[in-house]
Design goal:
Layout lengths: L2 H18 L6 H5 L5 H8 L8 H4 L24 H8 L2 H7 L8 H5 L19 H6 L3 H9 L1 H7 L8 H5 L12 H13 L2 H6 L6 H6 L2 H7 L8 H5 L19 H6 L7 H4 L13 H42 L4 E2 L3 H25 L4 H5 L4 H28 L1 H10 L3 H15 L13 H25 L1 H4 L5 H32 L9 H4 L1 E2 L1 H7 L4 H5 L1 H13 L1
Antiparallel strand pairs: 1-2
Helix pairs in contact: 9-10, 20-22, 22-23, 22-25, 25-27
């Protein structure tokens, strides 16, 4: 643009401005002077073609520009605030904030006026162009990547081949030089090398990630070590080559040098050790020896520990027979019908807990107890639920239609004396000289536990049915109700399981007065001495001494 042309532009713009008053600037104002055809064509084909120039060049407020005006760089934040925020936390953004004027900005990667979608073949950030774009600032990295197995795969047109942002992220570019070994292995390399799809498609070893995490280096990384070797420590960062390549860091000729980076005294024998320990199929001497040693020890462990376990169980059984045989256990605590109900409740409750938590935590240890089939866990959970609800209905019938059931219900009803018993027992437990209180057939703790089971069964039954038949339920109630029911179902299950472990298991197994086991749930009987100490107010049961002794004698003779 010559001097005469510039003067003409200024006159025209000044005239237009005077006629239009405070009219907002538009692209025609800019293209009057900036009439570069290549620029106009590039902008016209960009994703921003519907924008005004001043949308990006926000510092331009008037035309013609004031004397000595120098436009600043375009700003992207009005439309891309989230991306800018992410960029500011990146290695580039941090460098820019520190005053590094050579670090990459938006236009360095995306282009300036001719920004096109990333998927477009002409985009600098297209999968095939990205390495070259980054290489403008990182030429040595570009050369290393092009020589690497990843770069060669990219050159062959393989869309799955990783490029810069696959490892370093998009806007929040990470340097990875100070990244932890766990981050490198788990979040960078494993994204591809733990993929069953990619390993199958390109015939790659399927266990490279898992075998690393099982190695010494991987275990140290999982425990939080920041100095343990990671994938790049052995394979390199950008110039990653197959082990068959003489330049590869893991080529047999280079292994000693690679190991010495962390292990100064490493020699050839040391370097022959395997990081990716997988001797299930390998036929080298070490792998074959490892397999034999493993099977020998597994057999030895099963035989020795299994024999010890059987021996101790037989010893425990014999001593229990001797221990309980000496005790006078004449009090009937649970009759046969009650023990059957309790047994079914026990089995269904444990089954529900295991299958339920296996469904909630498919990677947890409970999931391994019931196998890997989600269908089996789900159907097992529902079958156990049906059993528990059936037992609950049978128990209601027992309470209503049998004499023992009606008496059981009456004795389990809360009373005001239970409140006073709580304070009396706390006084006994805390104060050394306080007398031990006497309780009726069922104390406040047993009553509370019974009614907690009743409440929990009703609540878990209702919410469980809602979850099971959610398709039917949502025909007449909002979906959020089912989601709330799911939350209630889960946390009620946690509460119930913890209550059983902390409260019920203590009373049945850990209480010193009955350790190692209160056998009432097995044969229904307890000793008169224990019953008088715990339930001394139950004069009806304790007064039936002759019947209890006769039953005990009959049991002993049998």
């Amino acid at each position: 643009m010559n001097r005469t042309h510039r003067i003409f532009c200024v006159i025209l713009l000044a005239l237009g401005t005077s006629l239009s008053g405070a009219r907002a600037l538009d692209n025609s104002d800019c293209f009057t002077c900036h009439d570069d055809k290549a620029l106009a064509a590039s902008f016209g084909a960009s994703v921003h073609r519907s924008n005004q120039c001043v949308s990006c060049h926000t510092d331009i407020k008037e035309v013609p520009h004031p004397d000595n005006f120098k436009a600043g760089p375009a700003t992207c934040s009005p439309c891309h605030e989230r991306d800018i925020t992410t960029y500011q936390a990146s290695a580039h953004g941090i460098a820019a904030a520190a005053g590094n004027k050579k670090t990459a900005h938006c236009a360095n990667c995306h282009g300036s006026h001719g920004i096109v979608p990333i998927r477009a073949a002409t985009s600098p950030l297209n999968h095939e162009n990205q390495a070259a774009t980054c290489g403008k600032c990182h030429p040595q990295v570009l050369q290393d990547v092009r020589e690497s197995i990843h770069g060669k795969a990219m050159a062959e047109g393989l869309r799955d081949a990783p490029t810069c942002t696959d490892c370093h992220a998009d806007h929040q570019i990470e340097t990875l030089k100070t990244a932890s070994p766990m981050k490198i292995a788990e979040q960078v390399c494993s994204r591809c090398h733990a993929s069953e799809r990619l390993n199958t498609r390109y015939k790659l070893p399927a266990n490279r990630s898992s075998s690393f995490f099982d190695s010494y280096h991987g275990l140290a990384a999982r425990l939080g070590s920041t100095s343990a070797a990671n994938c790049a420590s052995c394979h390199g960062f950008h110039k990653i080559l197959p082990s068959s390549d003489p330049q590869s860091m893991v080529h047999p000729a280079n292994m000693v040098k690679t190991c010495k980076k962390c292990h100064p005294g490493a020699n050839e024998n040391f370097s022959l050790g395997k990081v990716h320990m997988d001797d299930t199929a390998s036929q080298d001497i070490g792998s074959v020896a490892n397999r034999w040693v493993r099977w020998i020890y597994l057999t030895l462990i099963a035989g020795v520990i299994g024999g010890m376990l059987i021996h101790n169980l037989l010893t425990f059984r014999r001593k229990l027979i001797h221990l309980y045989g000496k005790k006078e256990r004449s009090i009937i605590r649970m009759n046969l019908a009650q023990r059957i109900q309790h047994g079914l409740l026990l089995v269904s409750f444990i089954s529900l807990a295991v299958t339920g938590f296996a469904l909630k935590y498919p990677d947890g240890w409970m999931a391994y107890l019931v196998g890997s089939s989600e269908t089996f866990r789900r159907m097992g959970h529902r079958a156990a639920a049906v059993v528990m609800l059936a037992v609950a209905l049978a128990h209601v019938g027992y309470l209503l239609f049998t004499r023992d059931g009606r008496k059981l219900f009456k004795d389990l009803l809360p009373a005001w004396s239970d409140v006073t018993d709580v304070f009396a027992n706390l006084k006994y437990l805390i104060m050394p000289n306080a007398p031990k209180p006497k309780f009726p057939r069922f104390g406040y703790g047993e009553k509370a536990e019974y009614w907690a089971v009743v409440w929990g069964t009703i609540l878990m039954g209702i919410t469980g049915i809602m979850i099971w038949f959610k398709m039917d339920m949502t025909q007449w109630m909002p979906r959020w109700v089912i989601e709330v029911a799911t939350t209630v179902h889960f946390y009620e299950a946690v509460l119930a399981v913890l209550a059983i472990i902390v409260w019920h298991f203590y009373a049945v197994f850990l209480d010193p007065d009955i350790y190692p086991n209160n056998t009432a749930w097995l044969d229904g009987r307890v000793s008169r001495e224990w019953y008088e100490d715990e339930h001394g107010l139950d004069t009806e049961t304790l007064g039936n001494k002759e019947t209890s002794e006769a039953e005990a004698k009959e049991k002993h003779e049998h």
